[in-house]
Amino acid sequence: MNPEETNMQKKVTAVIVTYNRLTLLKSSLAKVLSQTTTALKHVIVINGASTDGTHEYLDTLNDDRLLVVHLEKNLGGAGGFNQGIRQFYEQTRDNFVWVMDDDSMPRSDALAKLLLMFDSLPRAGWGASKVEWLDGNWSKMNVPGALNTSNNILQVSQDNLIAIKHATFVSTIFRRELIEKIGLPQKEYFIWGDDIEFTERATRVMPGYFVRDSVVVHESKSNAKPGDIVGETTEERLPRYLYEYRNRILTARRRQSNIKLFKTLAHSSLDFLKTLFLPRIAYRQKKLSIIIKGTYQGLWFHPSIEYVTYSNDQLLNK
Q1: Which of 11, 225, 300, 312 gives the lowest tally of CB atoms within 10 Å of its CB?
Q2: Are 127 and 117 within 8 A, CB to CB?
Q3: First-to-last CA distance in the chain?
Q4: For residues 262 and 308, is the Cβ–Cβ distance under 8 A?
Q5: Residue 195 in contact with residue 164, Cβ under 8 Å?
Q6: Model pLDDT for residues 272-299, shown as the tens digit of each residue
Q7: pTM of the model
Q8: What are phi and psi of 50, to 5 degrees?
């Protein structure tokens, strides 16, 4: 089957969120713009008030597909994706939105392979690529959660399409009508966990699938497990763990299961005990304080979900 023939009726907006990583952004943007499928109609770049020349660089670009949004302040990854998907919905008539960070490097056919999934599974509402790290192994922080089975199935099975319950915003695609139903990513998360909450919200409405032959490389600094405060050795990264513990509690509450909420609280408690008792833990007191404060805040964290509308006067005529 020729991917281009099946994708002729599909129109896609890509969303890239960036903050002070100009070198990575240049590479990511080039790979997105050079996708093999002509279904890519728009690329929205959300610049979170970068101070490294990103603003100036983006203003020099001349591609009819580009829509650049310069935010007045950094809203974190969550705020950036909130803005990007809003712009997709309000400014275009495209029927899919494909989202990623600025360190996501999709292979040239990654989008075409994602779109083929919707032909194979017409009921699908969203999909996620396979995310590799620089060495070709799985990116540990970006392994999707398999639906109704062990996550390990993604790594041991050879099936190309596997049902999933959540994924990260590293080459993840959503139908327009799904966005209409579930609203926008939770900007109040600021960083970490917004993608898990959003894709779980999506799964409650339309099924999502892992697409093995759609591959993206995540050029993160290290291939670390997600949210590993116990092993964290970089002091300036510690404040973001406050969002991790706060956000995961809200995500668990939205699952509407006391058992799942209890498991999340138990996970936080285990992290606390490991941090308290294991030897040679860097910044032990700071970490203990963050776990307590973040978990407590999560119990009282109640941001509303935003929904989207568009105006015909605002639509891009492309």
Answers
A1: 312
A2: yes
A3: 28
A4: no
A5: no
A6: 999 999 999 999 999 999 999 999 999 9
A7: 0.93
A8: -65, 150
